């Protein structure tokens, strides 16, 4: 019996880590399986659904055969992601037969039921109550209050030592290639007290790294009409940084006020790491994308960030082959990369997405040209990464341990590396007595294209 499928790592550069299921259901306990596809924001939704179900006495099954029903949390960001979601639904129907669909693709119920009419229910993104209602109808709860205890931190689908912290939902941008606002709505920020309360519980339960996520992290709180400060992300970041865990910022649009976040990184409150979706560099391409940024000013901002915090790591994702992209526009992107010298880079080849306004743009780029440009872009990004990592040889740095294999080799991450999407640092020997989640100091003695190797110092 195959285990429930998760995202193939080649599909998206901002892939969520594979969900980890460690629960062991009691005898006779009603159990639910979960297939969580898409980005880390969807993974958080899966955690919230499973936490609610565990609180009602349900067990969580890591495979189809042990589940009374299966929830498939879908992704609808790209047409290829939609196809993957339909495939996962089909697999769940074949292997289990009782399937509830939720997530971004659930915003198109007719699309799902047209392909899979036997699904029990379809709900949209973050419609937790409707998912619970569908589970209750398919598998009635049967809690045992003396046994079914819920951990204080809730159900987590990531390793114990790190956790995603979603601070808002939705997005106010109108990028032509994206349908996220149509699926998840406009920006809605969680109250700061709720975010901090969740973060404190996670840290108290042993989480050493908080990965802050949203659709637009730097816009957090700007949807509040009555607010005490213009940019609430600044005080939220400061408060999170006081909890004693690593705090990593994802999906940060390069607004001018981001410059005020960087001193927190220089002071050690927040990790010196910014994940910023630049998408392109040519002004005409950005205009066709309807992106809220200008490439020329972005280079100035990058220089300012590095002046404040020289050790800052910059990660981004880009789209090549966007409709109308000329060879000159693409070359501008390569030249911009030479100037920007980003540390970590992912890249999409443009795809049409049903409902996106970019579909109607003229001069779509042939697939073979997209592939050729993707190859050239990644060759450039790899060369930059290799040079930057080579410059770290001989340096001492703190790393967090993600895994120690049976041969005693520790897979770690530096402050410059987010889980699954960035590189690793490996410790080949001297790992006796170390444990997963521990933060240790190493000296880097070897570098590759994306990864480092080091010796334990403390």
From TrEMBL:
<dbReference type="GO" id="GO:0051539">
    <property type="term" value="F:4 iron, 4 sulfur cluster binding"/>
</dbReference>
<keyword id="KW-0963">Cytoplasm</keyword>
<comment type="function">
    <text>Catalyzes the methylthiolation of an aspartic acid residue of ribosomal protein uS12.</text>
</comment>
<dbReference type="Pfam" id="PF04055">
    <property type="entry name" value="Radical_SAM"/>
</dbReference>
<feature type="binding site">
    <location>
        <position position="104"/>
    </location>
    <ligand>
        <name>[4Fe-4S] cluster 1</name>
    </ligand>
</feature>
<keyword id="KW-0408">Iron</keyword>
<dbReference type="GO" id="GO:0046872">
    <property type="term" value="F:metal ion binding"/>
</dbReference>
<feature type="binding site">
    <location>
        <position position="178"/>
    </location>
    <ligand>
        <name>[4Fe-4S] cluster 2</name>
    </ligand>
</feature>
<feature type="binding site">
    <location>
        <position position="175"/>
    </location>
    <ligand>
        <name>[4Fe-4S] cluster 2</name>
    </ligand>
</feature>
<keyword id="KW-0479">Metal-binding</keyword>
<keyword id="KW-0411">Iron-sulfur</keyword>
<dbReference type="InterPro" id="IPR058240">
    <property type="entry name" value="rSAM_sf"/>
</dbReference>
<dbReference type="InterPro" id="IPR038135">
    <property type="entry name" value="Methylthiotransferase_N_sf"/>
</dbReference>
<dbReference type="InterPro" id="IPR006638">
    <property type="entry name" value="Elp3/MiaA/NifB-like_rSAM"/>
</dbReference>
<dbReference type="InterPro" id="IPR023404">
    <property type="entry name" value="rSAM_horseshoe"/>
</dbReference>
<dbReference type="Pfam" id="PF00919">
    <property type="entry name" value="UPF0004"/>
</dbReference>
<comment type="similarity">
    <text>Belongs to the methylthiotransferase family. RimO subfamily.</text>
</comment>
<dbReference type="InterPro" id="IPR005839">
    <property type="entry name" value="Methylthiotransferase"/>
</dbReference>
<keyword id="KW-0004">4Fe-4S</keyword>
<dbReference type="InterPro" id="IPR002792">
    <property type="entry name" value="TRAM_dom"/>
</dbReference>
<dbReference type="Pfam" id="PF18693">
    <property type="entry name" value="TRAM_2"/>
</dbReference>
<feature type="binding site">
    <location>
        <position position="39"/>
    </location>
    <ligand>
        <name>[4Fe-4S] cluster 1</name>
    </ligand>
</feature>
<dbReference type="GO" id="GO:0103039">
    <property type="term" value="F:protein methylthiotransferase activity"/>
</dbReference>
<dbReference type="InterPro" id="IPR007197">
    <property type="entry name" value="rSAM"/>
</dbReference>
<feature type="domain" description="Radical SAM core">
    <location>
        <begin position="157"/>
        <end position="387"/>
    </location>
</feature>
<keyword id="KW-0689">Ribosomal protein</keyword>
<dbReference type="InterPro" id="IPR013848">
    <property type="entry name" value="Methylthiotransferase_N"/>
</dbReference>
<feature type="region of interest" description="Disordered">
    <location>
        <begin position="1"/>
        <end position="31"/>
    </location>
</feature>
<dbReference type="GO" id="GO:0005829">
    <property type="term" value="C:cytosol"/>
</dbReference>
<keyword id="KW-0687">Ribonucleoprotein</keyword>
<dbReference type="GO" id="GO:0006400">
    <property type="term" value="P:tRNA modification"/>
</dbReference>
<dbReference type="GO" id="GO:0005840">
    <property type="term" value="C:ribosome"/>
</dbReference>
<feature type="domain" description="TRAM">
    <location>
        <begin position="390"/>
        <end position="458"/>
    </location>
</feature>
<feature type="domain" description="MTTase N-terminal">
    <location>
        <begin position="30"/>
        <end position="140"/>
    </location>
</feature>
<dbReference type="InterPro" id="IPR005840">
    <property type="entry name" value="Ribosomal_uS12_MeSTrfase_RimO"/>
</dbReference>
<keyword id="KW-0949">S-adenosyl-L-methionine</keyword>
<protein>
    <recommendedName>
        <fullName>Ribosomal protein uS12 methylthiotransferase RimO</fullName>
        <ecNumber>2.8.4.4</ecNumber>
    </recommendedName>
</protein>
<keyword id="KW-0808">Transferase</keyword>
<feature type="binding site">
    <location>
        <position position="75"/>
    </location>
    <ligand>
        <name>[4Fe-4S] cluster 1</name>
    </ligand>
</feature>
<dbReference type="GO" id="GO:0035599">
    <property type="term" value="F:aspartic acid methylthiotransferase activity"/>
</dbReference>
<dbReference type="InterPro" id="IPR012340">
    <property type="entry name" value="NA-bd_OB-fold"/>
</dbReference>
<feature type="binding site">
    <location>
        <position position="171"/>
    </location>
    <ligand>
        <name>[4Fe-4S] cluster 2</name>
    </ligand>
</feature>
């Amino acid at each position: 019996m195959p285990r429930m499928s998760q995202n193939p790592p080649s599909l998206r550069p901002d892939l969520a880590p594979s969900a980890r299921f460690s629960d062991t259901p009691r005898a006779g306990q009603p159990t639910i399986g979960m297939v969580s596809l898409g980005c880390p924001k969807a993974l958080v939704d899966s955690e919230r659904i499973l936490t609610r179900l565990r609180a009602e006495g349900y067990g969580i099954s890591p495979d189809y055969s042990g589940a009374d029903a299966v929830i498939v949390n879908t992704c609808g960001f790209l047409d290829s992601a939609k196809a993957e979601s339909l495939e996962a639904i089909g697999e769940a129907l074949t292997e289990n037969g009782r399937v509830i669909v939720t997530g971004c693709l659930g915003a198109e119920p007719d699309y799902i039921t047209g392909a899979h009419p036997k699904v029990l229910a379809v709900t949209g993104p973050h419609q937790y109550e409707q998912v619970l209602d569908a589970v209750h109808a398919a598998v009635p709860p049967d809690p045992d209050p003396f046994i079914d205890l819920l951990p204080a931190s809730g159900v987590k689908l990531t390793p114990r030592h790190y956790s995603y912290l979603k601070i808002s939902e939705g997005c106010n941008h109108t990028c032509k290639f994206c349908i996220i606002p149509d699926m998840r709505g406009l920006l809605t920020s969680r109250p700061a007290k709720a975010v901090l309360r969740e973060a404190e519980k996670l840290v108290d339960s042993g989480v050493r790294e908080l990965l802050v996520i949203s659709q637009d992290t730097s816009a957090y709180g700007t949807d509040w009409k009555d607010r005490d400060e213009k940019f609430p992300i600044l005080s939220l970041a400061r408060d999170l940084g006081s909890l004693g865990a690593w705090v990593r910022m994802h999906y940060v649009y390069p607004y001018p006020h981001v410059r005020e976040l960087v001193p927190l990184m220089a002071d050690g409150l927040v990790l010196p790491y910014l994940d910023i979706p630049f998408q392109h560099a040519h002004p005409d391409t950005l205009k066709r994308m309807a992106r809220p940024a200008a490439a020329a000013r972005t280079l100035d901002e990058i220089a300012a960030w590095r002046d404040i915090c020289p050790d800052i790591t910059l990660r981004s994702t880009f789209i090549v082959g966007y409709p109308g992209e000329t060879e000159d526009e693409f070359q501008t992107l390569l030249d911009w990369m030479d100037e920007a010298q980003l540390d970590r880079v992912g890249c999409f080849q443009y795809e049409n997405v049903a409902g996106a306004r970019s579909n109607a743009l003229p001069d779509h780029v042939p697939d073979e040209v997209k592939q050729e440009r993707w190859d050239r872009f990644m060759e450039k990004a790899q060369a930059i990464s290799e040079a930057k990592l080579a410059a770290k040889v001989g340096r001492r740095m703190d790393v967090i341990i993600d895994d120690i294999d049976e041969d005693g080799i520790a897979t770690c991450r530096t402050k410059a590396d987010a889980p699954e999407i960035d590189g690793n640092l490996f410790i080949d020997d001297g790992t006796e007595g170390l444990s997963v989640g521990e933060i240790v100091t190493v000296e880097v003695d070897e570098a590759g294209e994306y990864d480092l190797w080091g010796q334990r110092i403390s």
